[in-house]
Design brief:
Blueprint (H helix, E strand, L loop, with lengths): L5 H5 L13 E2 L4 E4 L19 E4 L11
Antiparallel strand pairs: 1-2, 2-3
């Protein structure tokens, strides 16, 4: 997962905030982050090309962010 470019990984997923630092996929309860202070390859807009971490939560973990 962390070697796959973030934009490629999100293709076909109904991710919210897909172009932001912390996209998430409700229903799958997957949340990703691109935040890092490390020197990593970045897109022209400054976001890292890949994710730096992923959170796997319970079924309703991201429900509060959709209200």
């Amino acid at each position: 997962m962390f070697r796959t470019p973030a934009d490629e990984l999100l293709k076909g997923l109904q991710a919210h905030d897909a172009d932001g630092e912390e996209p998430f996929v409700p229903g799958l309860s997957l949340g990703f982050t691109r935040r890092t202070s490390q020197e990593v390859p970045r897109r022209p807009d400054g976001l890292p090309l890949g994710f730096t971490s992923v959170l796997v939560g319970g079924a309703d973990y991201y429900g509060h962010r959709l209200r």
